[in-house]
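Hmm, how's this folded?
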Amino acid sequence: MQAEAASILGADRGAGRVVDALRKAADATGSDFHYLLGTAMRESSLKPNAQSSSSSATGLFQFIDQTWLGLVKEHGAQHGLGNYAASITRQSDGRYRADADLKQTILALRKDPEVCALMAGEYAKTTQGALRAELYAAHFLGPDAASKLIKLAGSDPGASAAAQFPQAASANKGVFFHADGTSKSVREVYDWAVRQPGGEGTVRVAQPAPEPAQSAPAQEAALTKVATAHDAQLQMLLSSVMNWQPKHSPFSALFGRDDATPSSAMSFGPGLLGLLSDAKDSKS
Protein backbone atom coordinates (compact mmCIF):
# COMPACT_ATOMS: atom_id res chain seq x y z
CA MET A 1 0.00 0.00 0.00
CA GLN A 2 2.89 2.39 0.76
CA ALA A 3 4.30 1.81 -2.72
CA GLU A 4 0.89 2.45 -4.28
CA ALA A 5 0.46 5.62 -2.23
CA ALA A 6 3.89 6.90 -3.25
CA SER A 7 3.05 6.29 -6.91
CA ILE A 8 -0.31 8.03 -6.72
CA LEU A 9 0.62 10.95 -4.49
CA GLY A 10 4.04 11.64 -5.88
CA ALA A 11 6.03 10.68 -2.78
CA ASP A 12 6.58 13.76 -0.58
CA ARG A 13 4.62 16.20 -2.71
CA GLY A 14 1.26 15.63 -4.37
CA ALA A 15 -1.44 15.37 -1.73
CA GLY A 16 0.65 17.13 0.91
CA ARG A 17 0.91 20.21 -1.29
CA VAL A 18 -2.79 20.06 -2.12
CA VAL A 19 -3.89 19.79 1.51
CA ASP A 20 -1.60 22.67 2.43
CA ALA A 21 -3.03 24.76 -0.42
CA LEU A 22 -6.59 24.03 0.72
CA ARG A 23 -5.80 24.98 4.30
CA LYS A 24 -4.17 28.26 3.26
CA ALA A 25 -7.07 29.05 0.91
CA ALA A 26 -9.58 28.46 3.71
CA ASP A 27 -7.65 30.87 5.94
CA ALA A 28 -7.32 33.48 3.19
CA THR A 29 -10.95 33.42 2.07
CA GLY A 30 -12.76 32.60 5.29
CA SER A 31 -14.24 29.43 3.82
CA ASP A 32 -14.43 26.05 5.52
CA PHE A 33 -11.34 23.87 5.12
CA HIS A 34 -13.17 20.57 5.50
CA TYR A 35 -15.72 21.59 2.89
CA LEU A 36 -12.94 22.43 0.45
CA LEU A 37 -11.09 19.19 1.21
CA GLY A 38 -14.21 17.03 0.86
CA THR A 39 -15.19 18.73 -2.39
CA ALA A 40 -11.73 18.36 -3.92
CA MET A 41 -11.65 14.68 -2.94
CA ARG A 42 -14.97 14.07 -4.65
CA GLU A 43 -14.33 16.15 -7.75
CA SER A 44 -10.75 15.13 -8.55
CA SER A 45 -9.42 12.75 -5.87
CA LEU A 46 -7.05 15.60 -4.97
CA LYS A 47 -5.41 15.47 -8.42
CA PRO A 48 -4.59 19.02 -9.62
CA ASN A 49 -4.29 17.91 -13.26
CA ALA A 50 -7.64 16.09 -13.40
CA GLN A 51 -9.40 16.66 -16.74
CA SER A 52 -12.92 15.62 -17.68
CA SER A 53 -13.24 13.63 -20.89
CA SER A 54 -16.73 14.97 -21.58
CA SER A 55 -16.47 18.70 -20.80
CA SER A 56 -14.01 21.53 -20.11
CA ALA A 57 -14.02 20.69 -16.37
CA THR A 58 -10.43 20.82 -15.12
CA GLY A 59 -8.40 20.82 -11.92
CA LEU A 60 -9.02 20.06 -8.26
CA PHE A 61 -12.57 21.41 -8.34
CA GLN A 62 -13.39 20.63 -11.98
CA PHE A 63 -14.26 24.21 -12.92
CA ILE A 64 -15.51 24.60 -16.48
CA ASP A 65 -14.07 27.41 -18.63
CA GLN A 66 -16.84 29.97 -18.11
CA THR A 67 -17.05 29.48 -14.36
CA TRP A 68 -13.28 29.86 -14.04
CA LEU A 69 -13.12 33.00 -16.15
CA GLY A 70 -15.87 34.53 -14.02
CA LEU A 71 -14.05 33.70 -10.80
CA VAL A 72 -10.75 35.14 -11.97
CA LYS A 73 -12.56 38.28 -13.18
CA GLU A 74 -14.34 38.73 -9.85
CA HIS A 75 -11.67 37.66 -7.37
CA GLY A 76 -8.35 37.51 -9.22
CA ALA A 77 -7.13 40.99 -8.33
CA GLN A 78 -7.23 40.37 -4.59
CA HIS A 79 -5.03 37.31 -5.00
CA GLY A 80 -2.32 38.77 -7.21
CA LEU A 81 -4.00 38.03 -10.55
CA GLY A 82 -4.98 41.59 -11.40
CA ASN A 83 -3.56 41.53 -14.92
CA TYR A 84 -5.52 38.40 -15.75
CA ALA A 85 -8.70 39.78 -14.20
CA ALA A 86 -8.35 42.97 -16.24
CA SER A 87 -8.08 40.96 -19.46
CA ILE A 88 -11.50 39.34 -18.92
CA THR A 89 -14.74 41.06 -19.87
CA ARG A 90 -18.33 40.05 -19.35
CA GLN A 91 -20.39 40.15 -22.51
CA SER A 92 -23.99 41.37 -22.82
CA ASP A 93 -25.18 37.74 -22.82
CA GLY A 94 -23.49 37.14 -19.46
CA ARG A 95 -20.63 35.04 -20.83
CA TYR A 96 -16.99 35.87 -20.11
CA ARG A 97 -14.35 36.50 -22.71
CA ALA A 98 -10.60 36.72 -22.11
CA ASP A 99 -8.01 38.36 -24.32
CA ALA A 100 -6.88 35.80 -26.87
CA ASP A 101 -3.20 35.97 -25.89
CA LEU A 102 -3.93 35.27 -22.20
CA LYS A 103 -6.95 32.98 -22.30
CA GLN A 104 -5.09 29.66 -22.27
CA THR A 105 -2.74 30.86 -19.55
CA ILE A 106 -5.70 31.86 -17.39
CA LEU A 107 -7.48 28.57 -17.97
CA ALA A 108 -4.29 26.63 -17.17
CA LEU A 109 -4.31 28.15 -13.67
CA ARG A 110 -7.01 25.63 -12.79
CA LYS A 111 -4.21 23.07 -12.54
CA ASP A 112 -2.32 25.20 -10.00
CA PRO A 113 -3.54 23.87 -6.62
CA GLU A 114 -2.85 27.13 -4.77
CA VAL A 115 -4.74 29.32 -7.26
CA CYS A 116 -7.53 26.80 -7.77
CA ALA A 117 -8.05 26.43 -4.02
CA LEU A 118 -8.24 30.20 -3.58
CA MET A 119 -10.86 30.56 -6.30
CA ALA A 120 -12.84 27.64 -4.85
CA GLY A 121 -12.74 29.29 -1.44
CA GLU A 122 -13.99 32.58 -2.86
CA TYR A 123 -16.74 30.80 -4.78
CA ALA A 124 -17.88 28.91 -1.70
CA LYS A 125 -17.96 32.14 0.31
CA THR A 126 -19.88 33.98 -2.40
CA THR A 127 -22.57 31.32 -2.69
CA GLN A 128 -22.82 30.86 1.07
CA GLY A 129 -24.94 33.98 1.48
CA ALA A 130 -27.46 32.90 -1.13
CA LEU A 131 -27.67 29.39 0.28
CA ARG A 132 -28.12 30.75 3.79
CA ALA A 133 -30.85 33.06 2.57
CA GLU A 134 -32.73 30.20 0.96
CA LEU A 135 -32.40 28.06 4.08
CA TYR A 136 -33.64 30.92 6.23
CA ALA A 137 -36.50 31.57 3.83
CA ALA A 138 -37.60 27.97 4.32
CA HIS A 139 -37.50 28.46 8.09
CA PHE A 140 -39.26 31.83 7.91
CA LEU A 141 -41.97 31.06 5.33
CA GLY A 142 -42.13 27.28 5.27
CA PRO A 143 -40.70 25.12 2.48
CA ASP A 144 -43.47 25.60 -0.10
CA ALA A 145 -43.63 29.38 0.21
CA ALA A 146 -39.82 29.60 0.31
CA SER A 147 -39.60 27.67 -2.93
CA LYS A 148 -42.09 30.10 -4.44
CA LEU A 149 -40.05 33.10 -3.22
CA ILE A 150 -36.84 31.73 -4.69
CA LYS A 151 -38.45 31.02 -8.04
CA LEU A 152 -40.14 34.44 -8.18
CA ALA A 153 -36.86 36.18 -7.30
CA GLY A 154 -35.50 34.79 -10.55
CA SER A 155 -38.56 34.94 -12.80
CA ASP A 156 -40.57 37.95 -11.52
CA PRO A 157 -38.46 39.90 -9.02
CA GLY A 158 -40.60 43.03 -9.28
CA ALA A 159 -43.80 41.34 -8.13
CA SER A 160 -45.43 42.52 -4.90
CA ALA A 161 -44.13 40.30 -2.10
CA ALA A 162 -47.12 41.14 0.13
CA ALA A 163 -49.55 40.04 -2.57
CA GLN A 164 -47.69 36.77 -3.04
CA PHE A 165 -47.32 36.03 0.70
CA PRO A 166 -50.20 37.77 2.50
CA GLN A 167 -50.00 35.74 5.72
CA ALA A 168 -46.31 36.38 6.22
CA ALA A 169 -46.73 40.04 5.22
CA SER A 170 -49.46 40.53 7.82
CA ALA A 171 -47.21 39.21 10.57
CA ASN A 172 -44.00 40.95 9.38
CA LYS A 173 -44.91 44.36 8.02
CA GLY A 174 -41.37 45.68 8.34
CA VAL A 175 -40.13 42.92 6.05
CA PHE A 176 -42.82 43.24 3.39
CA PHE A 177 -43.63 46.98 3.39
CA HIS A 178 -41.69 50.22 3.01
CA ALA A 179 -42.04 53.00 5.59
CA ASP A 180 -44.59 54.75 3.36
CA GLY A 181 -46.80 51.64 3.32
CA THR A 182 -46.02 50.49 -0.21
CA SER A 183 -45.31 46.83 -0.75
CA LYS A 184 -41.75 45.67 -1.22
CA SER A 185 -40.88 43.59 -4.23
CA VAL A 186 -40.11 39.90 -4.16
CA ARG A 187 -36.47 40.73 -4.83
CA GLU A 188 -36.34 43.13 -1.91
CA VAL A 189 -37.66 40.47 0.47
CA TYR A 190 -35.24 37.91 -0.91
CA ASP A 191 -32.35 40.36 -0.49
CA TRP A 192 -33.48 41.02 3.08
CA ALA A 193 -33.13 37.32 3.76
CA VAL A 194 -29.56 37.47 2.45
CA ARG A 195 -28.65 40.48 4.59
CA GLN A 196 -30.40 39.57 7.82
CA PRO A 197 -30.85 35.82 8.21
CA GLY A 198 -32.34 35.03 11.59
CA GLY A 199 -32.75 38.70 12.49
CA GLU A 200 -34.80 39.77 15.48
CA GLY A 201 -38.31 41.15 15.09
CA THR A 202 -39.71 38.58 12.69
CA VAL A 203 -42.56 36.18 13.24
CA ARG A 204 -41.91 32.89 11.50
CA VAL A 205 -44.82 31.43 9.60
CA ALA A 206 -43.49 27.92 10.02
CA GLN A 207 -41.29 26.94 12.92
CA PRO A 208 -39.99 23.39 12.59
CA ALA A 209 -39.15 21.56 15.79
CA PRO A 210 -35.46 21.92 16.63
CA GLU A 211 -33.35 19.01 15.56
CA PRO A 212 -31.51 17.16 18.34
CA ALA A 213 -27.80 17.79 18.44
CA GLN A 214 -25.90 15.19 16.50
CA SER A 215 -22.29 14.20 16.55
CA ALA A 216 -20.17 14.92 13.49
CA PRO A 217 -20.66 12.28 10.79
CA ALA A 218 -18.01 9.66 10.27
CA GLN A 219 -17.02 11.22 6.96
CA GLU A 220 -16.22 14.60 8.56
CA ALA A 221 -14.29 12.91 11.33
CA ALA A 222 -12.28 11.02 8.74
CA LEU A 223 -11.57 14.19 6.79
CA THR A 224 -10.41 15.92 9.97
CA LYS A 225 -7.96 13.11 10.68
CA VAL A 226 -6.69 13.23 7.12
CA ALA A 227 -6.21 16.99 7.36
CA THR A 228 -4.11 16.74 10.54
CA ALA A 229 -1.96 13.77 9.57
CA HIS A 230 1.68 14.47 8.76
CA ASP A 231 3.03 13.84 5.28
CA ALA A 232 4.07 10.21 5.69
CA GLN A 233 0.72 9.25 7.21
CA LEU A 234 -1.12 11.33 4.63
CA GLN A 235 0.27 9.18 1.85
CA MET A 236 -0.96 6.03 3.55
CA LEU A 237 -4.36 7.42 4.60
CA LEU A 238 -5.33 8.87 1.25
CA SER A 239 -4.13 5.99 -0.89
CA SER A 240 -7.46 4.23 -0.45
CA VAL A 241 -9.41 7.15 -1.91
CA MET A 242 -7.09 8.48 -4.59
CA ASN A 243 -8.45 6.11 -7.24
CA TRP A 244 -12.08 6.72 -6.37
CA GLN A 245 -13.52 8.58 -9.36
CA PRO A 246 -17.22 9.58 -9.17
CA LYS A 247 -19.00 10.45 -12.39
CA HIS A 248 -20.85 13.24 -10.65
CA SER A 249 -21.18 14.60 -7.13
CA PRO A 250 -23.60 16.82 -5.20
CA PHE A 251 -21.03 19.58 -5.49
CA SER A 252 -20.79 19.52 -9.27
CA ALA A 253 -23.48 22.10 -9.92
CA LEU A 254 -21.88 24.47 -7.42
CA PHE A 255 -18.50 24.27 -9.08
CA GLY A 256 -19.64 24.44 -12.68
CA ARG A 257 -19.68 20.83 -13.82
CA ASP A 258 -22.01 20.45 -16.78
CA ASP A 259 -22.52 16.71 -16.72
CA ALA A 260 -25.58 15.20 -15.06
CA THR A 261 -24.77 11.59 -14.31
CA PRO A 262 -25.78 10.79 -10.73
CA SER A 263 -23.48 9.03 -8.32
CA SER A 264 -23.68 7.66 -4.83
CA ALA A 265 -22.20 9.45 -1.84
CA MET A 266 -18.59 8.81 -0.90
CA SER A 267 -18.21 5.77 1.32
CA PHE A 268 -15.73 5.61 4.19
CA GLY A 269 -15.75 1.87 4.89
CA PRO A 270 -14.49 0.15 8.03
CA GLY A 271 -11.10 -0.45 6.46
CA LEU A 272 -10.35 3.21 5.76
CA LEU A 273 -11.85 4.39 9.05
CA GLY A 274 -9.75 1.81 10.89
CA LEU A 275 -6.65 2.97 9.07
CA LEU A 276 -7.40 6.54 10.05
CA SER A 277 -7.93 5.55 13.68
CA ASP A 278 -4.71 3.51 13.79
CA ALA A 279 -2.77 6.41 12.33
CA LYS A 280 -4.11 8.79 14.95
CA ASP A 281 -3.29 6.36 17.76
CA SER A 282 0.24 5.90 16.48
CA LYS A 283 0.86 9.64 16.75
CA SER A 284 -0.26 9.88 20.37
Notes: The radius of gyration is 22 Å. The longest helix spans residues 113-141.
